């Protein structure tokens, strides 16, 4: 494996500053915002989750994003764009490139199951568009539909025909779309798409939000089944869960997953910036956009809407974030005027948000094939296509029902990323160096970031991560 840059094809760049910000926001805004976040919040007691969540955002998320953007641009200016090369130039050691390979594997593995959920969203959107969903008013139809789609029920399995075949076809379609955007090149593919998708998403999701909030209290005799009750659950802080290390682990895992921090994606995107392109304000802007989508749209739609239908969310019985999105929400759409249109809009939004994220998981792998082996873009895309098919094939095979997906997500989305983020923090704070980091961060910057952020990155971040992780391990020891 050679991590020396050599190929003109990888020397592409971003077209504009707003373009790179929207592409980074596109990577960040995804299923994590609309499904994973409400699911995690529900699982960890709603309001109890929000305090560790915001602390993780300020102490870990934003500082680590700055570190990634800084290191990415630094390596990119020296001609390295893929994680193995980037790690090598930062660590100045040959063996470092193997660490980079691990950094490529995690987003790739996440992709293999993420794309399956992406396909579910498209299937739901299409079924709303054709009117196949919402036939009659049997509240059980959504659970049955989702069961067939995920192979959880006896009459359907992913390879067993019917909805299963549809799923395979749609997953293949999603592959094709992802690869198409990547093969078009950075600015003509990902950037051009995100420039339309992110503003469009903001408008469409806001329309759904307004409709959901207007539900208010549909039946005054059942005050617990209301938007207000859902908002209360989501925003009233509760102390108990704060003493559970798992809440803290889940909160930081959610921050990493949602901001796409620690996955090697942001370093890669930033590696296409020029020496004096701003990173400080761009990273902050992309992260702020992500939080708006997550807290104001994801957080205000899913849980309050679920309350209107369920009247309560019992953290113990919540099977997974997926059921909230794919079974409970359709039941809420079924209750509302214009439900079919809003159902379509919601799942179409999820699909678009998912695409702008999934391309960012594959793009670094594609560039690695080109940069590391000198493969042409087409060949690299073909190889990537084969790997995706094998990876997602394995996921689909094992994912009858939701348990496997949830488990996958826990190990990759929470634990794996945790380890990678810790490595990155140590790499930045102790090898790259915070003085150099501070100087690099401010080259061409439009804002001034206080030095205390660097001190936090060097000392607080690794300790914070290790303490949570250790506490979690101790709690779960047999
Ligand atoms: N941030 C994306 C989301 O919220 C997921 C993602 C993870 C994207 C890792 C890139 C890398 O859905």
TrEMBL record:
Q: How does it sit in the membrane?
A: Multi-pass membrane protein
The entry's localization annotation reads: Membrane
Chain segments annotated as transmembrane: 14-35, 47-66, 98-126, 165-183, 192-214, 248-271, 292-313, 344-369, 381-398, 410-431, 451-472
PROSITE patterns the UniProt entry points to: NA_NEUROTRAN_SYMP_3 (PS50267)
Keyword Amino-acid biosynthesis included in the entry's annotation: no
Q: What InterPro entries has UniProt attached to this entry? A: Na/ntran_symport (IPR000175), SNS_sf (IPR037272)
Q: Which residues form a coiled coil?
A: none
CC per GO annotation: membrane
Q: Indicate yes or no for the key word Lyase.
A: no
Keyword annotations for this protein, in alphabetical order, are: Membrane, Transmembrane, Transmembrane helix, Transport
> Domain of life of the organism in this record?
Bacteria
Q: What is this protein called?
A: Sodium:calcium symporter
Q: Which organism is it from?
A: Polyangium spumosum
Q: What is the lineage of its organism?
A: Bacteria, Pseudomonadati, Myxococcota, Polyangia, Polyangiales
């Amino acid at each position: 494996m050679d991590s020396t840059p050599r190929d003109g094809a990888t020397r592409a760049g971003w077209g504009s500053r707003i373009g790179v910000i929207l592409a980074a926001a596109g990577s960040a805004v995804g299923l994590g915002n609309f499904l994973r976040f409400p699911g995690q919040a529900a699982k960890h007691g709603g309001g109890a989750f929000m305090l560790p969540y915001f602390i993780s955002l300020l102490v870990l998320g934003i500082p680590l994003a700055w570190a990634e953007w800084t290191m990415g641009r630094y390596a990119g200016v020296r001609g390295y764009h893929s994680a193995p090369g980037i790690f090598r130039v930062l660590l100045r050691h040959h063996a470092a490139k193997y660490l980079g390979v691990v950094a490529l594997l995690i987003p790739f593995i996440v992709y293999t199951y993420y794309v399956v959920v992406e396909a579910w969203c498209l299937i739901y959107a299409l079924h709303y568009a054709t009117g196949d969903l919402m036939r009659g008013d049997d509240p059980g139809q959504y659970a049955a539909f989702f069961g067939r789609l995920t192979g959880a029920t006896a009459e359907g399995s992913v390879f067993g025909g019917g909805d299963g075949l549809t799923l395979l076809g749609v997953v293949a379609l999603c592959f094709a779309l992802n690869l198409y955007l990547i093969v078009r090149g950075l600015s003509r593919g990902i950037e051009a798409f995100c420039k339309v998708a992110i503003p469009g998403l903001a408008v469409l999701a806001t329309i759904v939000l307004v409709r959901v909030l207007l539900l208010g209290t549909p039946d005054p005799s059942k005050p617990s089944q209301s938007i207000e009750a859902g908002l209360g659950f989501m925003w009233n802080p509760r102390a108990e869960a704060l003493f559970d290390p798992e809440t803290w682990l889940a909160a930081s895992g959610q921050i990493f997953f949602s901001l796409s921090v620690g996955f090697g994606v942001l370093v890669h995107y930033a590696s296409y910036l020029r020496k004096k392109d701003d990173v400080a304000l761009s990273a902050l802007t992309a992260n702020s956009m992500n939080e708006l989508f997550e807290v104001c749209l994801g957080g205000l739609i899913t849980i309050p809407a679920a309350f209107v239908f369920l009247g309560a969310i019992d953290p113990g019985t919540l099977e997974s974030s997926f059921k909230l999105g794919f079974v409970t929400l359709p039941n809420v759409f079924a209750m509302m005027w214009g439900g079919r249109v809003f159902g379509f809009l919601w799942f179409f939004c999820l699909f678009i948000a998912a695409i702008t994220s999934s391309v960012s998981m594959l793009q670094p792998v594609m560039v690695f094939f080109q940069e590391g082996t000198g493969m042409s873009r087409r060949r690299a895309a073909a190889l990537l296509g084969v790997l995706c098919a094998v990876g997602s094939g394995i996921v689909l095979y094992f994912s009858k029902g939701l348990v496997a997906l949830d488990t996958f997500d826990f190990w990759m989305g929470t634990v794996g990323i945790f380890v990678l983020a810790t490595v990155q923090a140590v790499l930045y704070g102790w090898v790259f160096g915070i003085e150099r980091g501070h100087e690099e961060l401010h080259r061409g910057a439009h804002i001034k970031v206080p030095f205390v952020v660097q001190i936090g990155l060097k000392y607080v971040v690794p300790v914070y991560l290790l303490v949570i992780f250790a506490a979690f391990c101790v709690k779960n020891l047999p």
